[in-house]
Design a protein that fits this description.
The complex is a heterodimer of chains A (about 120) and B (about 110). Chain A is mainly beta and about 120 residues long. Chain A is built from no helices and eleven strands. By secondary structure, chain B is mainly beta. The chains are: A mainly beta (about 120), B mainly beta (about 110). Chains A and B meet through strand 10 of A and strand 4, strand 5, strand 9 and strand 10 of B.
Chain lengths: ~120, ~110
C-alpha cells in the first residue's frame, strides 16, 4: 500500500547511544517532516524538508540531525540519546498545494523510542 | 506565538449519542484548520480540512466548523459508534505554513 513507512517501530537505547530512524514515502511528495509526540502535548516539529536537498529546523531540533537522502527518504539521527528524547516519533510527507493551499500530511505509524 | 488547546482531554459517551469536540487557537491569522484521528499504535489520519475562508466542512457523520474571529473550531460527530473511539487532534496552519497542534481529545464510545 502506498504511504509512509517508518523503521524501527520500537527501540530501547541507553543514554549516550546513537541511532537513526528511517522514513520512506512512495507518493512522490516534495515535503517530509519529523515530529515527536509526548503525553499531554501536541505534536512538535523537529525538522522538515521542503524539497530534496533542503532541510530546516522545526520547533525542537536540539539533539537531532536529519538527512534527506533522496526524494523518498528522510532519516532522523540521535547522536547521543538522552532520557528527554523518550517519545513517539512520527514521520510525515505532504505535497503542499500552493502558497495558501492545504498542507495535508500523510503519516507513518510511528516509532516508539525509550532512552534509559 | 500560536497556541492550540483541546478541551476536554478525554471524553466517554454511550453509543448513539451526538457529540462535540472543541479546539481553540490564540492567533486568528491561520491558513486552515485540520482535524485528525489517531488510533493506538498507528499514525494520524486527516479527517477534515477547513480553509480560512470557509465556515464548515462535512464528511459523512462528521462536521467541522471554524470561527476564526473567536479562535474556535468544533468537530461534531453524529450517531457515535464504538469504531469512533480514538484520539482526535486539531492543527492550524499558521502564517509560516507550519502546523501547530493541540494535544488531542481521547474519545471512548461505550457500546
Amino acid at each position: 500500500n502506498a504511504g509512509v513507512t517508518q523503521t524501527p517501530k520500537f527501540q530501547v537505547l541507553k543514554t549516550g547511544q546513537s541511532m537513526t530512524l528511517q522514513c520512506a514515502q512512495d507518493m512522490n511528495h516534495n515535503s517530509m517532516y519529523w515530529y515527536r509526540q509526548d503525553p499531554g502535548m501536541g505534536l512538535r516539529l523537529i525538522y522538515y524538508s521542503a524539497s530534496e536537498g533542503t532541510t530546516d529546523k522545526g520547533e525542537v531540533p536540539n539533539g537531532y540531525n536529519v538527512s534527506r537522502l533522496n526524494k523518498r527518504e528522510f532519516s532522523l539521527r540521535l547522536e547521543s540519546a538522552a532520557p528527554s528524547q523518550t517519545s513517539v516519533y512520527f514521520c510525515a510527507s505532504s505535497d503542499q498545494q500552493g502558497v495558501a493551499g492545504a498542507n495535508v500530511l500523510t503519516f507513518g505509524a510511528g516509532s516508539r523510542l525509550t532512552v534509559l | 506565538k500560536q497556541e492550540v488547546t483541546q478541551i476536554p482531554a478525554a471524553l466517554s459517551v454511550p453509543e448513539g449519542e451526538n457529540l462535540v469536540l472543541n479546539c481553540s487557537f490564540t492567533d486568528s491569522a491561520i491558513y486552515n484548520l485540520q482535524w485528525f484521528r489517531q488510533d493506538p499504535g498507528k499514525g494520524l489520519t486527516s479527517l477534515l480540512l477547513i480553509q480560512s475562508s470557509q465556515r464548515e466542512q462535512t464528511s459523512g457523520r462528521l462536521n467541522a466548523s471554524l470561527d476564526k474571529s473567536s479562535g474556535r473550531s468544533t468537530l461534531y460527530i453524529a450517531a457515535s459508534q464504538p469504531g469512533d473511539s480514538a484520539t482526535y487532534l486539531c492543527a492550524v496552519e499558521d502564517s509560516n505554513y507550519q502546523l501547530i497542534w493541540g494535544a488531542g481529545t481521547k474519545l471512548i464510545i461505550k457500546p
